[in-house]
Amino acid sequence: MNLLHFIRWPLRAALCLLLLAVTACVPPRSSRVTIGAKNFTEQVVLGELVAQEIEAVTGQPVERRFYLAGSYLCQQALVSGRIDGYVEYTGTALTAILKQSLPPVGQREAARVFATVERLYRERYHVRVEPGLGFENTFAMVVRGDDAGRLHLKTISDAVPHAPGMRLGVGYEFEERPDGLKGLEQTYHLKFKGDPRLMDLGLLYRALGSNQVDMVAGNSTDGPIRALNLVALEDSLHYFPPYEAVPLFREDSLREHPGIQIAMDRLAGKLAADEVRQMNDAVDGQHRNVADVVHDYRKSKGL
Predict the structure, then answer these.
(1) Which segments of the chain are extended strands (E)?
(2) CATH class assigned to 139-233
(3) What CA–CA distance (Å, rounded) separates 14 from 259?
(4) Closest Cα partner for 84 from 248, 263, 264, 262?
């Protein structure tokens, strides 16, 4: 046995011990149902709603892994089994996760987009796309109510002649998304004053309210739209694809926990956009506890 062997054998043994230690540190998949959510208010509201409904059906506690930073991390958590399900939006799933091109304008019907998303999740990831919760949360170009009245703005098309004098504020993701700013400007022939101001989503309405910007790319169910007397302009050319809120669940999780499907059937079609807007505002504007807001909503619906 030569010297090289004596050097290599301890090294191999050390590597094996290191591998065993690392493997032992990886947490096992929880026996409880685990629900995820992205890092903004509506997602936490929807995650809490799904979690509470599953708990009501199964009588078992549900783990919550909320405030995951965006669709990509939620998707990775889902396919790796760190979460069993979360709520996604069909337009986001189509473009950001499944990397599909947007259908031509005029061919973006909700049913068509849902069918494509449902098939690709099933084929690629063994994930079931559940029926929608009953509302869409589409991107919305939002202006101050006073400006909407003064300039007679009801649609994005109405804003086109005024855009060269308007400052735009957008979130970081909206600037880069295939269904985001670039396509919007091309579709509507929009030209704003200067470059758009990029900021965290939570700062958009503060910037609009303090006159730092004149239009923001928000979401149609954002609570501040109602609370701050803002106006979401109608997408008159139907640029944005449908963004139905749909729960996504691993197929093996549904087999292991059949109560999940019962809970999702109970929630299907239950939520109206204005109800979601009210819950978002109760959390953001009134600073109420998310669990309490969701509990009160479920009680009002007889759930």
Answers:
(1) 34-38, 63-68, 85-89, 127-129, 139-144, 168-171, 197-199, 215-219, 230-233, 245-250
(2) alpha beta
(3) 46
(4) 248
Tell which residue, 285, 296, 276, has the closest CA to residue 220: 276
- Give 249-300 pLDDT, tens digit per residue: 999 999 999 999 999 999 999 999 999 999 999 998 899 999 999 999 999 9
How many whole angstroms separate alpha carbon 245 and alpha carbon 50?
12
Give the residue from 211, 238, 246, 232 showing the smallest Cα distance to 93: 246
Q: Where are the domains of the chain?
A: 34-136+242-300, 139-233
Written as six digits, the tokens of 21 are 């230690």
pTM over 0.90: no
In this predicted model, what pLDDT tens digit does every residue of 42-66 receive, in sequence order?
Answer: 999 999 999 999 999 999 999 999 9
Q: For residue 9, what pLDDT band results from cuts at 50, 70 and 90? A: very low
Fold type of domain 34-136+242-300:
D-Maltodextrin-Binding Protein; domain 2 (3.40.190)
Distance CA 160, CA 290 (A): 38
According to DSSP, the β-strands at 215-219 and 139-144 are: antiparallel
**What whole-number distance in Å separates Cα of residue 252 and Cα of residue 94?**
23
- The span from the first CA to the last CA of the chain, in angstroms, equals 74
> Comparing C-alpha atoms, which of 121, 85, 82, 117 is closest to residue 103?
117
Q: What is d(CA 175, CA 87) in angstroms, rounded to the nearest whole number?
A: 23
Q: Is-contact 114 129, C-beta < 8 A?
A: yes
